[in-house]
Amino acid sequence: xxxxxxxxxxxxxxxxxxxxxxKPEAKIQVFVYNYAGVAPKTLARAEREAARIYTRTGIxxxxxxxxxxxxxxxxxxxCQLPVSxxxxxxxxxxxxxxxxxxxxxxxxxxxxxxxxxGFGTIAQVxxxxxxxxxxxxxxxxxAMLGLVMAHEMGHLxxxxxSHSASGLMHVPWQKKALESVAQGTLVFTPREGERMRQQVxxxxxxxxxxxxxxx
Length: 215
Hints:
Blueprint (H helix, E strand, L loop, with lengths): L1 H21 L4 E8 L5 H17 L3 E6 L21 E7 L1 H7 L7 E4 L9 E5 H8 L3 H21 L16 H9 L6 H16 L10
Parallel strand pairs: 1-2, 1-3, 3-5
Antiparallel strand pairs: 4-5
Helix pairs in contact: 2-5, 4-5
């Protein structure tokens, strides 16, 4: 009898683990195009900061450095994947590129949202805006850049009208918010996190984007 009970328990446990293992994950790939020439160490720290923020929401991110010219494509085979709603691109812009787009410390970046209501997949961030605000601190520069990347990705996942009254999606960032950057406490609200997870699963299933709602 003990053997039968033990076997039955084992079957239940294996079935549960299998169900959990087959459960879809909220995960997106992030292709990074470093037009600003940000130092690899700083960029890696920025990506880790953005990844940390998304992990708090239950969304895993995979970061890939990608080519800037067609001639470099062969060196970045991982970036030669078909277009997918689960793959987003972040363009880290040089000063001249940022100035042409009108980006500044009031507008650190932009997200290109689909005009037909589809999923957005491209975001742009102003590298020198974060660098100047950091005032020579490499760690602050990396943290700021990571938060800006996370913020613009937030627009891609939340859709139009996704600025909020508090947290990472609040603008403009005032002194109190900048202090939170140094402390690592400027993050998405729980409601934003839930909505972004839903949107990632919608992308995974090939569904239409949900309409944005304000916090």
